[in-house]
Design goal:
The protein folds into two domains: about 5-45, Arc Repressor Mutant, subunit A (Orthogonal Bundle), CATH 1.10.10; about 65-135, Alpha-Beta Plaits, CATH 3.30.70. The protein is elongated, with a radius of gyration of 19 Å. A four-stranded antiparallel sheet has the order 2-3-1-4. It has helices at about 5-15, 25-30, 35-45, 80-85, 115-125; strands at about 65-70, 90-95, 105-110, 130-135. With about 150 residues, it is an alpha+beta fold.
């Protein structure tokens, strides 16, 4: 169960992370705790799977890379096998099930545009199913902050 400090950490860090010599110390001071306590709390939130990820998000295309949303139609009896293959690929940012004909969706981020094509090909080869690649046409920014 989360306490007020856990909630404060999550709520505070959704707004950004300081770029400075000692960012954890700065955040800890803002939250009225110690750097060690902050780091221990973040580790516990990750270990307990309250948070699934803690780290920066990069705009792969601006860095010269490739980025795309992809979907697959996977028979229910083969879903777990395919999910395991996709989830172990470092290019996959996240993967999730949908109640739709295309029932597996994931985001790919690669260092190069060709890396994106290579990853899509590898997924098709390893899983035996086609991948529907849906690169973005236009980008929209929706700032979503979930207060806990």
């Amino acid at each position: 169960m989360m306490d007020s400090l856990d909630r404060g950490i999550i709520n505070h860090l959704q707004g950004g992370f300081p770029i400075c010599a000692n960012p954890y110390a700065k955040v800890a001071k803002q939250l009225g705790t110690s750097e060690g306590e902050l780091l221990a709390r973040i580790r516990k939130l990750l270990d307990d799977k309250v948070l699934t990820r803690f780290g920066p998000l990069y705009h792969a295309e601006r860095l010269g890379g490739g980025l795309s949303l992809a979907a697959m139609k996977i028979p229910p009896n083969d879903f777990d096998r395919v999910a395991e293959i996709i989830n172990r690929m470092p290019e996959v940012a996240h993967n999730y099930a949908r109640d739709h004909a295309l029932n597996m969706w994931f985001v790919l981020a690669t260092e190069t545009p060709q890396g994106l094509q290579n990853a899509l090909g590898a997924i098709e080869h390893e899983t035996g199913y086609p991948v529907f690649n849906m690169p973005k046409v236009k980008e929209y920014f929706v700032e979503l902050k979930l207060q806990v």
